[in-house]
Design brief:
Layout: E1 3-7, H1 12-24, E2 27-33, H2 37-47, E3 51-54, E4 66-67, H3 70-75, E5 80-83, H4 91-99, E6 104-106, H5 110-126, E7 130-132, H6 135-143, H7 145-152, E8 176-181, H8 191-194, H9 199-202, H10 212-220, H11 222-235, E9 242-246, E10 252-257, E11 263-267, H12 273-281, H13 295-298, H14 313-323, H15 327-343, H16 351-362, H17 371-389
Helix pairs in contact: 4-5, 5-11, 5-15, 10-15, 11-14, 15-16, 15-17, 16-17
């Protein structure tokens, strides 16, 4: 029996995580939501967590659940904490959870994009693994388990990402990571067509059912660029060793190449239930009711390179990583602001990447070893994007 806390329990990942938890028979320690108080109240009454947090008033006085702050929920004792908050708002809870000794299952990529240096430092100091939940990073993690497990049998104490356990043997270290991407709503569109792209168009994802912000990030390819930075921190690789392939079927979730040329891939139907469950049950696998993959029925899997000239987000994210310091935080903050302005009808689709690049190069770069610097860069980048968007 594990006790699980979920930050962002009313979002897509949080809702699916509760389904997985119910199937596994785990206990819920804490639940949080940003503003969906009605759904959070239903979840509290069903799962009876010890703590809950929400920015809106909660009508749960008749339950035993205590209403506390988000950071209190992050620090509440549990066996594993799933951070499914969207955006840089998830960074402070990640830091709070790690500092209080809670193991993290991370679905909030911004914690590592903006605060990777700080977060991984705390994780190493606390000897707490960061377990990936994004389907791509879970796939990479799963592909690394065989060599890691052999080494871990002799060296059970693991620091940072558990996959690194086997890397003391040089041959076990991956030579290259290949992240797969669906291509989003605008795959195959010409630049002329992108000039007139609407919010409604951008939200028509062909495969995944995600929140509006992430769906737009998928259309711009910023979601994949941010995942490149996340993978670099999780698996201790330079971004030059991380490639992206467009894979429309979303069956191959990512691949890992080793020094002998072997390429391992993790396949599965496009569902978040498996990566969520694997993070919660690691190092074990448990039975799941999820539908099974039938490759014969599927028939064809296709792959092609991204069109960086029309979708520059991946290269901008790699540039931010190479600049280091708070540049990734500035890039992330600028993207969150531009994404929001686009969804509000105040920005054209192609302006998103253009404004993000300008903000990243305008905001002064500083050390990213503390939250004050990280959030200062985030705010400055947001303000720059707002200024650029003014007529």
């Amino acid at each position: 029996m594990k006790r699980v806390s979920i930050l962002g329990s009313t979002g897509s990942i949080g809702v699916q995580a509760l389904e997985v938890i119910e199937q596994l028979g785990y206990e819920v320690a804490a639940l949080t939501a940003h503003s969906n108080a009605d759904l959070l109240e239903q979840q509290v009454r069903k799962f009876r967590p010890k703590f809950a947090a929400c920015s809106q008033p909660l009508n749960i006085a008749d339950t035993s659940t205590k209403v506390v702050s988000l950071l209190d929920c992050a620090a509440a004792p549990c066996d594993i904490l799933l951070n499914a908050i969207v955006g840089i708002a998830g960074l402070r809870p990640t830091v709070a959870a790690l500092k209080d000794g809670n193991q993290i299952a991370l679905a909030n990529k911004e914690s590592l994009v903006a605060g990777g240096e700080l977060v991984t430092k705390i994780a190493r100091e606390k000897n707490l693994p960061i377990l990936p939940v994004d389907s791509e990073h879970s796939a990479i993690f799963q592909c690394m388990q065989f060599p890691s497990t052999l080494w871990a049998l002799r060296h059970p104490k693991v620091e940072g990402c558990p996959s690194r356990a086997g890397w003391s043997l040089r041959s076990n270290r991956p030579q290259r990571i290949i992240l797969t991407a669906s291509g989003g709503a605008f795959f195959g569109k010409t630049r002329a067509e992108l000039e007139h792209a609407t919010v409604k168009d951008a939200l028509q994802h062909p495969v995944w059912d995600m929140g509006a912000k992430i769906t737009v990030d998928s259309a711009t390819m910023f979601n994949k660029g941010l995942e490149v930075i996340e993978a670099a921190w999780l698996f201790d690789l330079d971004v030059s060793k991380i490639d992206v392939l467009i894979h429309r079927q979303s069956i191959v979730h990512s691949l890992v190449e080793y020094c002998d040329g072997a390429v391992l891939a993790q396949l599965g139907l496009p569902s978040m239930c498996l990566p969520i469950q694997y993070a919660l049950t690691y190092p074990n696998r448990e039975a799941s009711p999820s539908p099974r993959l039938d490759l014969a029925k599927l028939g064809t899997l296709t792959f092609e390179a991204p069109r960086h000239e029309d979708f520059p987000a991946i290269n901008l994210c790699k540039m931010a990583w190479e600049l280091g310091g708070t540049a990734p935080a500035a890039l992330n903050g600028a993207n969150e602001a531009a994404n929001e302005l686009f969804r509000a009808g105040k920005l054209r689709f192609l302006d998103i990447a253009h404004f993000v690049e300008q903000a990243m190069h305008t905001v002064p770069n500083s050390a990213a070893d503390n939250l004050d610097n990280i959030f200062a860069a985030d705010q400055a980048a947001r303000q720059k994007v707002v200024c650029l968007s003014q007529p």
